[in-house]
């Protein structure tokens, strides 16, 4: 007899045989499967000093040609500039490896297959990241670059140092010379204008706001853990809990600029932002475009400084939007155009991608308009230490640190509570253990929680906003197709060793005497725990004896 | 700047630096790290026709010498007869790979390092498995061999065919000639006796009992998923839900044999069984020894047939014990000695290994006598189909199959209920959908459960015994060090596609038209879902528009 693996073949309703998502090694992404286009193309960089910018939006025929090239590409391998190792990703969150980070082959392929100037952008963007970001960053997606700080770094700074701020790119990183940069203000404004960088910096009253930016995908990994095992099909980055950061942003409010244009026309309801980066949807390139409702004009900063320094290319130099209270995806980087509209942006980022569906919606039935466009984020929080899977040696109290944040307007984190037992008991974090309250920013916390119990413990945290909204209990309470907005209570499991328990102190002393390490916890103990006499006595006492006496 | 992996170093209380259990690739076990002993040894096979049996129990000095050899072995590599591929293991239970099955290096090493006749036993045992078992078996541990049937096979047969019956070995597989086999009956009996095979088979009234044997580790994987990520340190097999099987066992009751010995002496409370296989604990060999309380004498069969056929070597030929209602570990295979005692067996299998601790007990504080010796199993059940992670296409009802079992005496499965929503609604399984009630066996079930909902659904099952005991809700309700007795409600997640929903039927027709497969579910849909006009209309209707009208 021979033994082989049993695999699970399934015939889907279209009669196609598929291998069901299998619990196998994390797949590395496919190698490029098409060659570089070597014909002549009309699309190019058009503005001097604007490297990495192609004005797709203004040339629909360029977009169409690019799509045709990608649709009809020859099946021929070209080499990716990224290796799986570059995207290697130290999973601090989950004890089980879900994915090793995403190499970003799919998006690199779009750029490289089109050839021309786009060919080098993935590799160039990576070089920019290496210049601008700290080497400790965890790479979640190599291209477009998505990276988050470590848990330890997140809780060190209420104002995140620029090199540690999370990055969620959607395409390449343009390098735009501030001297040639120009901002167009148009659409449903009374007097369309253009503004140069020096004018923006010196010609208007400036404002500095402390704001947390957060990706709507933060903590996505918890939703992925609930899903079908198709982690490699989910093209969105497998963020843990650090896809957020806080900075002091300086610039001019959007309201000021709109006033400079003589205000809005009556029909205007939304204001669109254009970013110079290139973004693809179904093989079609465009610039990065989203909008915000006009009620956010006064809060929104058209920013050129981040924590007192000019923006780096990675964070949108020379100028970006910062929309406090909204997900980061609305804070457009490499901003070059502002346009007032009679409806929200119809560009795919906002209308097809950052959508929030109910649990019952999926590939089998959703339309884009069944989801709603994600703006302000709900109350959320996460434990940064201890780490999931950590063996915690303590004397009856475990120190827990983390962050809490809420989006929206005139709303903030009011209270944080930590539970050492999965949500049965909740210990409040006092005001002194919470960082300062800002209008638009997170609060960090550090608290010691009574923990008499030993063994595997489920620690969890919940925050409350000023209106007493708190977080759902379980990940699946908010599971949604596309796995956005994970704000259920963040749970970690630790192995608790309470040194104030005499029997535990004795055991650790015994281990020390025998020269045995405690960890790994499940490594069998190579020592005698009791002699036969003691064991028999315990049987006679009734400790082990199973049968009743009478 | 350069980027590297962040690793988690930790200094334990003994000052030893350890890398915290990391979410990395399943480790293959260490290669052997010591050479084969080539000195002369006294231990050997002593009984003609009893290949694979060394009478360790009768020669304490042999045990001691073997221990000294293993303790002092030279650090020198020898090659394992097992490769990770042999233990490859198709995980049908969990969407996340926990471990790829265990190669069994640790136990093979004990045998091979001692050299002499033991050297070949691991490889020989593997050959016996290949002869006796079906090729579809899932190998959970190569040596000692642990294997379970597939989920599909389990629910096909109320009486499990012998080649599909689960196997939980603790050492090698002896090959014992029935003609030379002899059973000793001694200890606290009034007249010690010996019995030959023909005499056992023909000299006493025989009895046939239909009994399910179950490993106390069945469904262990669910507990492992809760644990620290130290799956490779847990030396116990990572069973899914198929470490059980039902057979019609034929033999002579233990009561009959004890009566043949003139009955028990008054002090006797327990009866020990000796198996001819070799088992190691902390480098020390012994034969496999456990006991049962005397109240189980009448239920217990000293069996020579399994489903009407003589036992195969894998299942204990020529004679084994079968203790209905108790975990399989008490049903000793290759039985050669029965001994009445004034206390439960003090051999390590029962006194140090098959123990059930509270959640609060662990390496940091437990003594063996803090656990109790596992005998009868509590009520349990599991879903065999659909499989976890399966995309289920249905018309509003999902067919669920599985098993339910309880141990104990005068107890059986009375009711089974299935929930399509994580335990909120429970649909009963009717008597007609349950297999026959036996005194000592499982019941299989098949039921259609109303399932209007789509997307990820949490299906779960619970069974009730005749005393209305049912199962705990969550795995962690019963989590215990050594991860025995997993009987919490078995949960699976499916992706439900309800074809009776018109919007879903429409979408599948669209996919078919575009030549697109539905799976993998998360593979992005490369087609337009709505045109701009439709989308804008939905915005104007208020479906997407976020701002209130007034």
TrEMBL record, chains A, B:
* TM regions (residue ranges): none
Q: Which UniProt keywords apply?
A: Metal-binding, Molybdenum, Oxidoreductase
What are the GO cellular component annotations? Answer: mitochondrion
What terms describe the molecular function in GO for this protein?
heme binding; molybdenum ion binding; molybdopterin cofactor binding; sulfite oxidase activity
Which is an annotated Pfam family here? Oxidored_molyb
Tell whether Transferase is among the UniProt keywords.
Answer: no
Expansin-like CBD domain location is 405-487
**Which coenzymes or cofactors are required?**
Mo-molybdopterin
Q: Which Gene3D superfamilies match?
A: 2.60.40.650, Oxidoreductase, molybdopterin-binding domain
State the CDD domains in the record.
SO_family_Moco_dimer
Which GO biological-process labels does this protein carry? sulfur compound metabolic process
Q: Where is the signal peptide?
A: none
**Protein known as:** Molybdopterin binding oxidoreductase
Q: Which organism is it from?
A: Dacryopinax primogenitus (strain DJM 731)
